[in-house]
Design a protein that fits this description.
Keywords: Cytoplasm, GTP-binding, Hydrolase, Metal-binding, Nucleotide-binding, Ribosome biogenesis, RNA-binding, rRNA-binding, Zinc. The protein is α/β, with parallel strands linked by helices. It has nine helices and 13 strands. The strands form three sheets. Strands 10-9-8-11-13-12 form a six-stranded mixed β-sheet, sandwiched between helices. Strands 1-2-3-5-4 form a five-stranded mixed β-barrel. It binds guanosine-5'-triphosphate, magnesium ion and zinc ion.
Length: 304
C-alpha cells in the first residue's frame, strides 16, 4: 500500500475514536473516523493531526501536530483537563437568566490573556433584560467596553446581534464558553444554518441542565471555526502567578510601571499606582475588588 500522509482537524472524540475533518485540498471525503493509540489520549477538539488509511479500511492517527494553545479546565480531583486546542478567540457567553457572574467573566478574560487569544463578551437573552438586569450589570458591561473588550447584546431566538458576532468570527477559531443554560448551543445553531445542535431547558431557578457534553468543532462559511463547549458551574484559574493574574486585568498595564515596587501586587503595598488609579476612578472599583479576591484565593491555594 502506498504510504500516504493526510492532515486533518479534530471535530470531536469519543474514547479512542476521533471524528476528523479532512483538511487536504479538495478532499474526496470531507470527514474521516480515525482510531487513536493510547499515546494520543491527549488529542482534543481543535487539534491538527496527520492520519492515514489503514489496511482494514479504517483510518489511524499518525501524529499530533504542534498546538498554538489549549484551553484547560480543572477536572477530576482538580487536575487540569484539556478541552480544546488552537483557539484564536474566546466568546464568553452570558445571559440574564441564568444570571451573570462577573467573577466568572473576569476569570475567562484572564484565561484569554494567558492563551494569547482575543475575547468577546456576549450577553444573550436580551428579551429577559428588562425583568432581570440591574444597574450594576449595565455598569459592568459598560466598563468592559471602556477597557477595550467588545460587548454584544444577543437574542438567539430573534437573531438580534447574531450577524455582528458572525462577522467577528471570520477566519478565526472561536470557542463558546460560559455557564450551562446561557444559550451557547442556541447561538451556534443561529450561526450555522444547517446545524441542529441539541438545546436544553433551564429550571425555574435559572440553572442549565448541562445539555452539551463534549466540545465539538464546526466549520463556518467564512473559513472560521466555531467550537461549542459544555457549560461550566464555575471556571477556576489554573496554576498562574500573581503577575499573570494582574496581566489578565488589562487596564492595570498602563499604571503598574509606576508602582513603587516592581513586584507590586497592587494589594497593601505603599505607593501603588494601580490603587491610586482606583481611588481616582480611572480603574473600576468593582473590577479591582474582584482582582483582590482572585489574588487572595491564589495566595491561599499556593500556601496550602
Ligand atoms: N428567552 C430566551 N431564551 C433563550 C435565548 N437563547 C437561548 N434560550 C434558551 O435557553 C435555554 C438553554 O439554551 P442552550 O442553548 O441549550 O444553552 P447552553 O449554553 O448551550 O447550555 P449547556 O449546553 O447546558 O452548556 C434553552 O431553553 C433556550 O431556548 C434567548 O435569547 N432568549
Ligand atoms: Mg449547549
Ligand atoms: Zn501596584
Amino acid at each position: 500500500m502506498k504510504t500516504e500522509v493526510n492532515t486533518g482537524r479534530v471535530v470531536t472524540r469519543f474514547g479512542a475514536e476521533l471524528l476528523v475533518e479532512n483538511t487536504e485540498d479538495n478532499p474526496d471525503i470531507p470527514h474521516v473516523r480515525c482510531t487513536a493509540k493510547r499515546k494520543f489520549d491527549t488529542i482534543v477538539c481543535g487539534d491538527y493531526i496527520t492520519w492515514h488509511h489503514n489496511e482494514h479500511g479504517n483510518a489511524s492517527v499518525d501524529d499530533l501536530l504542534p498546538r498554538t494553545n489549549a484551553l484547560t479546565r480543572p477536572g477530576y480531583r482538580g487536575r487540569p483537563r484539556t478541552i480544546a486546542a488552537n483557539i484564536d478567540q474566546l466568546v464568553i457567553v452570558n445571559s440574564w437568566l441564568p444570571e451573570t457572574s462577573w467573577d466568572l467573566v473576569d476569570r475567562y478574560l484572564i484565561a484569554a490573556n494567558q492563551l494569547n487569544a482575543e475575547a468577546i463578551i456576549v450577553m444573550n437573552k436580551s428579551d429577559l433584560a428588562e425583568a432581570h438586569a440591574t444597574e450594576a450589570d449595565w455598569q459592568a458591561m459598560k466598563n468592559y467596553e471602556e477597557i477595550g473588550y467588545p460587548v454584544l447584546q444577543l437574542n438567539a431566538h430573534t437573531g438580534e446581534g447574531i450577524e455582528q458576532l458572525k462577522q467577528m468570527m471570520d477566519d478565526k477559531t472561536s470557542i463558546f464558553s460560559g455557564r450551562s443554560g446561557v444559550g451557547k448551543s442556541s447561538i451556534a445553531n443561529r450561526i450555522l444554518p444547517t446545524s441542529d445542535i441539541a438545546v436544553g431547558i433551564i429550571s425555574d431557578s435559572g440553572e442549565g441542565k448541562h445539555t452539551t457534553t463534549t466540545a465539538d468543532l464546526y466549520r463556518l462559511e467564512n473559513k472560521g471555526y466555531l467550537i461549542d463547549s459544555p457549560g461550566v458551574r464555575d471556571y477556576a484559574l489554573g496554576d498562574i502567578s500573581t503577575q499573570e493574574l494582574a496581566d489578565g486585568y488589562i487596564e492595570f498595564a498602563q499604571y503598574q510601571n509606576n508602582c513603587r515596587f516592581h513586584n507590586c501586587t497592587h494589594d497593601h503595598e505603599p505607593r501603588c499606582a494601580v490603587r491610586t488609579a482606583v481611588e481616582n476612578n480611572e480603574i473600576s472599583k468593582e473590577r479591582y475588588l474582584r482582582y483582590l479576591d482572585a489574588l487572595h484565593t491564589l495566595k491561599e491555594n499556593s500556601n496550602s
